Amino acid sequence: MTPTSASPAPVRAHADRALPARLRARYRLVPWWQRVSVIWLLSRLVTTTLVLALASVQGQNPWTPAKPGYTAFANMWDALWYNIVAVGGYPSVLPVTVDGHVGENAWAFMPGYPAVVRVLMLVTGAPWASMAVVVSVACSLGTALLFYRLMRRVQPESTALFAVVLFCAAPLSPLLQFGYAESMQLLLLTLALLLVLQRRYLVLVPVIALMALTRPSGLAFALFLALHVGFRWYSRVRDPFPVREAVTASSVAVFSGLMGLAWPAIAWAVTGSPTAYTDTELAWRSAYIGYQELVPFAAWFQSGVWWLGQPLGILVVVAVILGFTLLMFAPAVRSLGVDLRLWVASYALYLLAVFFPQSSVFRLLMPMFPLLGALARPRSIVYRVVVTLLLICGQWGWLLLCWGVDGADWTPP
After folding, report:
1. Which stretches are transmembrane (predicted)?
2. Given pLDDT bands bounded at 50, 70 and 90, which one contains residue 1?
3. What is the pLDDT of residues 275-300, one digit of tens each?
4. What are phi and psi of 285, to 5 degrees?
5. Which of 15, 44, 107, 126 has the most CB within a 10 Å radius?
């Protein structure tokens, strides 16, 4: 055999090694926003397929006929309330039940999201159902892009990109393309957190103002900023915190607190009832525990007893609180940095103070999404594929449990 006849094998081996190297080189040339956009687009295709599959077997319900189209199916449940706000505004007289309590009404739904949809409806002439979906989908893309930038400040590139995958594949990600305010809230929240990490405090003011009128968040963000200021002052030796910057950040924290109280104040001014907003919110939990006063930090224990009885319900809530506290100090969570952990803790404390847990608890936990950066840390391909598939399965589970309507449904999203 001549030397030339043996040469193809080494040449092929070299080519096999060179191909992945060329692919990696080309991949590195792809801008980060294109990578994130591709992830987002693929995830929306998967989620939309799941939604359409469930819509094809959905029976007639209070919101849609049987087998509704996508936009009709995406605007069930509280999307109707946002629609009411967009076209009819808020009642000046609170509705009252036969036993004299404030009933469910539009004051529970803040105006940020329906106002944006309403403006676009007027500009385009499109109906609520389709424009609400468009706004939510656009906000979800913006959130994915900003979330990558947020994660890149605390995690390596590969981890940050996989965190975006987890965000886009999360069990509640269908909600990001429904007629709900969560997609817009997460966009504003991600931007606000990014601005805090960049120390751009003054730019936070309009973001906080809109965010606090989109979903209840002003008080939780005020607590977060107060803790952020305290930590920066504590660590000022290694991370200088000039007095002028401290005053600015503190002022923005106060502003966030005021914005957190703005919507209850507006409801008071319009209806004449100082408790119009809180009474309206309490109407939603009356189906579980009847009408009761709002007592801070009591609702989780009330819910535990309602679901599990005494003393198991109390013990489970205490265990959840202790487990969450330990989670905040886990190495993977610590890798997110102090600021993102302070936000998660602040929001958790806010939920503990005011929220009554039921099936909507999954939706209310969405603002804790920076924790996905901790879940994304393992670099094993097997781990990442398995976790992604499990989350997609979780989407189907959440759609079946909380979104699809089966008779007298008691598991609202």
Report:
1. 32-55, 128-148, 160-180, 247-270, 307-330, 342-361, 381-405
2. very low
3. 999 999 999 998 888 888 889 999 99
4. -90, -5
5. 107
Q: What is the pLDDT of residues 51-99, one digit of tens each?
A: 999 999 999 999 999 999 999 999 999 999 999 999 999 999 999 999 9
Domain membership flag for residue 410: no
367/185 Cα distance (integer angstroms):
8
Q: Measure the CA–CA gap between 389 and 73, rounded to whole angstroms.
A: 24
Closest among 300, 308, 287 to 353, alpha carbons compared: 300
What residue type is assigned to position 400 of the chain? L
Total domains present in the chain: 1
Model confidence, pTM: 0.93
Q: Residue 381 belongs to what domain range?
A: 33-403
176 is a domain residue: yes
Q: Taking Cα atoms as reference points, which of 202, 199, 207 lies closest to residue 229?
A: 199
- Tell me if 331 is assigned to some domain: yes
Q: In this structure, what token pair is assigned to residue 177?
A: 């393309």
Pair of tokens at residue 13: 């081996």
